[in-house]
Amino acid sequence: MLQQTQVKTVIPYFKKFVNEFPDLRSLSKSSENKILKLWEGLGYYRRARNLLSTSKILDKKYNFKLPKKLIEIKKLPGIGDYTANALLGLVHDKPTIAVDGNVKRIFSRLLNKKENKINFDQFIDINKKKFFYSKRNSDFVEALMEFGALICKPKDPQCKICNLNRNCKYFNSIKKIKNNKNITIENKNYDVFCYINKKKQIALTKKNNLGFLNQFSLPKIRETKKDIVSRDWKFLKKYKKSISNKKLNINLYYKFSNKKPSSFIWCSMEKNKKFIPTFTKKIFKQVSILF
Ligand code: SF4
User: Fold this and answer.
1) Does some domain include residue 126?
2) What is the distance between the alpha carbons of residues 188 and 232, in angstroms, rounded to a whole number?
3) Distance from C-alpha of 249 to C-alpha of 170, rounded to nearest angstrom
4) pTM for the whole structure
5) Does the beta carbon of 111 sit less than 6 angstroms from any atom of ligand 1?
6) How does DSSP assign 176-199, residue by residue?
7) Does residue 223 share a domain with residue 208?
8) Of 90, 131, 170, 206, which one has the fewest beta carbons inside 10 Å?
9) Which tens digits make up the pLDDT trace of 135-193?
10) Tens digit of each residue's pLDDT (9 = 90 or more) over 13-22
């Protein structure tokens, strides 16, 4: 009844139908006319005729039992691959997945791959130990249907409450994009003043009071132009650097000097056994052009 038809439309017809035919036996004894009358308004009447024919075949050939082989189930009128697998799982508890649009959507989101890029038979086969370990195969078939209808819906999937979200590549990719959108890029202007001497040494300090760069050995850095640039400072270069969510616009100044402030240490720009942060190395590179 649910083929091509919404659940809410089917419910009253289903109730009437199972009330009239509570089992296969009663259905098989019915007539096409009676069945079509009950089906009236639901459309796709071939479904009703197929149901009646199937019930009669199950009576004659299988003593009202559903066959246990997929190939035999598929021979019954109106039963294709999807319905046959669903029946095999639901009725006989066989390890199988009824692959319809819902299941394709769920797997394609979990893998974050387009449906046409997934070989579903192969995917199920590779993962069969994970899918069918519990011996509750009929529950699994049912659960996938419910999961696709209520949680991993075509529009507006309920990822926040989804039990699979930690392992879902689609959800994690969306989360990453959202997180990136939430990061505000801070633009900062810095004037960097380098004391250098003729021995190719540069004076570095950890006392710049710049928060995020404080643990590193750096030249003298001051934020904004308000800081005094003594006449002896020479402008060398303007360049850009990104550190996490900060975009730094750097104006590099230098001064050849044998003196440096007391909190600084001289540091060779060529050979250095100390850890030198990338930011400082970049400055070394810029300043080295002076030699
Ligand atoms: S996290 Fe979202 S997209 Fe992924 S399986 Fe769950 S509901 Fe579907």
Assistant:
1) yes
2) 24
3) 36
4) 0.61
5) no
6) HHHHHHHPPPEEEEEEEEEEEETT
7) yes
8) 206
9) 899 999 999 999 999 999 999 899 989 999 999 999 998 877 776 666 555 677 788 88
10) 999 999 999 9
